[in-house]
Write a structure and sequence with these properties.
Layout lengths: L3 H4 L9 E7 L3 H13 L5 E4 L8 H4 L11 H4 L14 H14 L6 E2 L2 E9 L4 E8 L2 E12 L4 E6 L13 E3 L14 E5 L3 H10 L5 E6 L5 E4 L4 H8 L4 H25 L1 H16 L5 H4 L12 E4 L2 H7 L3 E5 L2 E5 L2 E4 L4 E3 L2 E4 L3 E3 L6 E4 L2 E2 L7 E2 L3 E2 L5 E3 L8 H22 L4 E3 L22 H6 L18 H7 L10 E3 L1
Parallel strand pairs: 1-2, 1-6, 2-3, 4-19, 6-23, 8-17, 9-10, 9-17, 10-13, 11-12
Antiparallel strand pairs: 4-5, 5-6, 7-18, 14-15, 15-16, 19-20, 21-22, 24-25
């Protein structure tokens, strides 16, 4: 597939100074560009993307069956109606993004193949200086404002634990994040290690190709099976309602339902648990050991609730095309995996769908006025700005709702902030603790009782600190933030302008 950079050469390629520099041309960076063009159109901007094309996570992951784990009515942009099935393939999402980029002329602003190595702020120049390599050649770009949209994990390498005996295994070990294009699973016995959305996607996608696939999990995950369709959207289309209206109504309906399941998961977790297990039982039958394989030890939504379109994973298990084993790994052997229980899983291919490595700053070396920055030493302002770091906003999405919902909330916030700075005649803004905040306890970024997936727990030491006040934490609540962020007083005492 040709990239946009190949089809349409960028303009202004020699320009090296901008008002705003957006890092990353994934779902967040493209959304940020749209907001900037609509709500602060007088600002010059550039998007620097390390890959040769757009898409971010949807370009990185190429394993069989790769799809969204959020429905596209809320994961898609609010300004661009989604017309496909709620759960979409990576190819469908990339095609959707391609339309957004070309329809809005965003492609003229993207510079592909630009790997950023350092970003340095100068208070004297009121500028970020960004340096790196563009297709092997050094480049330097400066900008007044840095909009970090590079995501939150390391694209180059996924997370794989070190198990004893891995070097002894005579087959192939592969991580979904670096899936080989020439990997042939025909006639192979495959073990997929993991219990999240990636494993649940992979198993049904390869079940018809390999001899047999086994899902090996240390502990179960909650799954929500549902037809990959939306009755409300289908009915509105049958009534020939305009797609923009369909998109808005269905989006509102889904957000309402998501708010309700989130509330109930906290207030009546046992009832929600019973409903989810009953949904699994409807696919798997009364004799399946759901207590062992699909009953997690945590409450619903304490980790991400994985969506199964048409219950495909459960269907594969019920049909005998796949099996599930819940156990711990003792060691790898020449021909498979020895489990703590003493059972052996024979395999030709082992897939480690064991998560990713948290990467908060995109492996960029940051400095402010010559002082190296460690973001773990800062305090977060609402999960998007950081004490001691001027003119920078970082996009971190939601865990319990679609990532893109926060992209547009922050898009509104950043453009409002930029316009406010212009009205004040300010070239610099940063956040700082107020006098009443100086005795505030500083806590880890996320309360483990609130949300505790493995990748977050492993990387908590890399994240900024939070306080115990709403301004100084990322509350992970879209339904609260959609009211709170637009109401932020940009002249409040936590904002410092110069």
């Amino acid at each position: 597939m040709a990239t946009l950079s190949e089809e349409r050469p960028e303009t202004g390629a020699r320009t090296t100074d901008f008002d705003v520099l957006i890092v990353g041309a994934g779902i967040s960076g493209v959304g940020a560009a749209w907001h900037l063009q609509r709500q602060a159109p007088d600002r010059s901007y550039v998007i620097l993307e390390s890959k040769p094309t757009f898409g971010g996570t949807w370009e990185t992951h190429r394993y069989p069956g790769i799809r969204s784990d959020s429905e596209l009515y809320t994961f898609g942009y609010r300004f661009k109606p989604w017309v496909g099935p709620p759960i979409a393939t990576a190819a469908e999402i990339l095609a959707y993004m391609r339309e957004v980029i070309t329809e809005n002329g965003i492609d003229r602003h993207i510079r592909y193949g630009h790997h950023i190595e350092s970003a340095t702020w100068s208070s004297g120049d009121k500028r970020w200086t960004v340096r790196g390599l563009a297709n092997g050649e050094p480049f330097t770009v400066t900008a007044n404002f840095l909009w970090m949209c590079q995501g939150y994990y390391r694209h180059a390498k996924g997370y794989t634990p070190e198990w004893p005996g891995m070097a002894d295994f005579r087959g192939t070990i592969v991580h979904p994040q670096t899936w080989p294009e020439d990997l042939d699973l025909k006639g192979k016995r495959v073990v997929v290690i993991g219990s999240g959305a990636t494993a649940a996607t992979l198993v049904p996608a390869i079940a018809d190709t390999c001899v047999h696939v086994t899902l090996l999990q240390r502990s179960p995950t909650y799954f929500y099976p549902h037809p990959n369709s939306n009755e409300l959207a289908d009915r509105l289309r049958q009534l020939q309602v305009d797609e923009a209206i369909v998109h808005d109504i269905v989006r509102r309906s889904i957000l309402f339902d998501q708010a309700e399941i989130t509330r109930r998961s906290v207030e009546e977790p046992e009832a929600v648990k019973a409903e989810l297990l009953e949904a699994a039982r409807a696919y798997l039958g009364p004799d399946f050991d759901i207590a062992t394989h699909f009953t997690p030890s945590y409450r619903p939504w304490q980790q991400r609730l994985a969506f199964l379109p048409d219950g495909d994973l459960f269907q594969g298990l019920a049909a005998g095309k796949a099996s599930v084993v819940t156990d711990h790994i003792e060691r790898f052997t020449e021909h498979g995996i020895l489990l703590k229980s003493g059972k052996t899983l024979e395999a030709d291919v082992i897939v480690t769908a064991t998560g990713f490595n948290l990467c908060i700053t995109g492996d960029i070396d940051f400095a402010v006025d010559g002082r190296p920055m460690n973001f773990a030493d800062t305090v977060t302002y609402r999960g998007m700005m950081f004490t001691g770091v001027p003119n920078l906003v970082w996009v971190m999405g939601y865990f319990r709702a679609s990532w893109t919902l926060r992209v547009y909330l922050l898009g509104d916030f950043v453009t409002r902030l930029l316009n406010h700075m212009k009205a004040k005649g300010a070239s610099t803004v940063e956040v700082a603790l107020r006098p009443e905040d100086h005795n505030m306890p500083l806590l880890p970024w996320m309360d483990a009782d609130n949300f505790n997936p493995g990748y977050l727990m492993r990387g908590m030491h890399l994240l900024p600190k939070r306080g115990d006040k709403p301004e100084w934490m990322h509350n992970q609540d879209y339904w609260a933030e959609c009211r709170e962020l637009p109401a932020i007083d940009l002249d409040g005492p936590e904002f410092r302008y110069s």
